[in-house]
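Predict the structure of non-specific serine/threonine protein kinase.
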Amino acid sequence: MTETEGQDNPRVIAGRYRLQRHIGGGAMGVVWEADDQLLDRTVAVKQLLLPPRLTPEEAEQARKRSFREARLAARLQHPHAITVFDVADDDGKPVLVMEYLPSHSLAEVLAERGSLPPGEVARIGAHAASALAAAHAAGIVHRDVKPGNILLGEDGIAKITDFGISKAADDGTLTGSGRFAGTPAFLSPEAARGETPGPESDVYSLGATLYAAIEGRMPYGDTDNQMALLYAAAAGRVAPPEHAGPLTGVLTRMLDVDPKARPTMAELAAELGKLAMMTATTKVGPVPPRRPSRRRFAYAGAALAVVAALVVTLVVLLPASTGDNDAPADQASAPPSPTSATSSPAPPSTSVTTVTKTATSSPTPATASAVQAVSDYYAMMPGNTDAGWERLGPVLQAQGKSSYVGWWSTISSVSIVSGPRQVDGDTVEVTVDFVKGGSHFRERHHLGMIQRDGKWLINTDTLVR
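Done. Here is the predicted structure for non-specific serine/threonine protein kinase.
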């Protein structure tokens, strides 16, 4: 298939997929935008390229493996994974028919912006981790998690693509010819040493991807020497992150050299989702490239359309502590630097807005129904997240229901210990006690209330220290 064939003389694959335009490609294949003439929809068609220098017998084995792994990937259905619709044969070569998402890859966004703030990276990571967790539960290991395989859609959604394809095409391992197929920049140490990658390897690769997004540089250093990168990957030599802020802890655990010490993808999806909602208290403007270099992410792969929107919303109703070693908020050993909730944008590393002002002595009266709405909300949690979700305003709902439900699933109980009471205009203060993993965490929150169709909704949430 050539670009001329796709434009001047459109080809039809498997009797139904008419190629329209070439939209990308790389070592693993060529990607086209195509029309599914049977179902009248736009799809992405990817022709897989088999490793070079194969004998006829090896090529046949690789072709069969490609079909087998692609069919396995087609079983995965998840809102944050690009869906594989069909596996077709084009002159003996496997062709994947996938969901078409107008988007940019994370690699392209990083090439343009250099780095992203922690809150935005946490949101992207939470989306990708939730899809990877579903894949692992289905027995699918991605093996090639990297910025080029994470697509950012127009509405801010992140979707991971190329499930199972790297395994099918032997990408990311040493081929029979001794040449390294693909970049080792995001390989786990065990994969770089030639061991069979497992779910823990995907965790490491996602950690390396998020590291690159926050730090603006490759985890193993900015070099074009593939063998040097491979040696660094095998040793797990990663410089500690300097700009990760609230994501420092989770990144460190994801990048642990010992696979058994890394968290699972399901654990990461919940933790990153929580961090995304916490760090959304910081309103962040576009981040200038720290060390601009388009070369770093030039391996990225196909662009499909529009860059993801920046997260500017506030924290959803959850405690500020993270990880397995959580401590009550009033015992935190290193609270974030104080910033006013109404101050100018804080640095990306700020995870929780600290409110320094106290309640005014003569606040604007809030209706009793707003206070009651807060009482009713916590009375139904954590057991009724569907009803709780309906009581959130558009700012908090912008964080995504899956992350919201995922976080509440980690809480065994919650109770109000003080309030709720009106403090300023439509702001309601409440102190709550969360129970997670048998430990109690007491926090005070200022909730911004709005009315929609005569109903009070919780639209913003600020943790008060």
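Residues 3-99 form a domain with the Phosphorylase Kinase; domain 1 fold (CATH 3.30.200.20).
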